């Protein structure tokens, strides 16, 4: 599946994310769950901060950076979902695919395939 065709998605309604049998099927749904630009921006900010925390963890070997990275990543994302997108994060039902979706969307934002 090429992600180059992804633009700002429309709201998906009541789709159970557990029905997807592959990440390729899941990712378009994941994008529909991130239709709100503020939600996407918060995901992007949280992911960037998480990466910086990962670098700090490697440099300092201080395990608190791992916790900080997790709090930043999920905290920003959940504010985006509950406060702006008005939906429940798919990570509650498909944690691995959602984690993969976040980093795929992060890459696609950098590549200009998903707008923020």
TrEMBL record:
Top-rank lineage group of the source organism: Bacteria
Name the Pfam families on file.
Answer: Mpo1-like (PF06127)
Q: Which UniProt keywords apply?
A: Membrane, Transmembrane, Transmembrane helix
The membrane spanning regions, by residue number, are 42-59, 65-84
PANTHER family with a match to the protein in the record: DUF962 DOMAIN-CONTAINING PROTEIN (PTHR34205:SF2), TRANSMEMBRANE PROTEIN (PTHR34205)
State the name under which the record lists this protein.
DUF962 domain-containing protein
């Amino acid at each position: 599946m090429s992600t180059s065709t992804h633009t700002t998605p429309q709201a998906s309604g009541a789709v159970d994310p557990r029905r997807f049998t592959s990440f390729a099927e899941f990712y378009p749904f994941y994008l529909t769950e991130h239709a709100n630009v503020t939600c996407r921006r918060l995901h992007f900010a949280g992911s960037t901060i998480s990466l910086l925390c990962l670098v700090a963890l490697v440099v300092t070997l201080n395990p608190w950076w791992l916790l900080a990275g997790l709090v930043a990543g999920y905290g920003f994302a959940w504010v985006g979902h509950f406060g702006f997108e008005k939906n429940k994060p798919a990570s509650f039902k498909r944690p691995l695919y959602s984690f993969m979706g976040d980093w795929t969307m992060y890459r696609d934002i950098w590549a200009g395939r998903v707008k923020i």
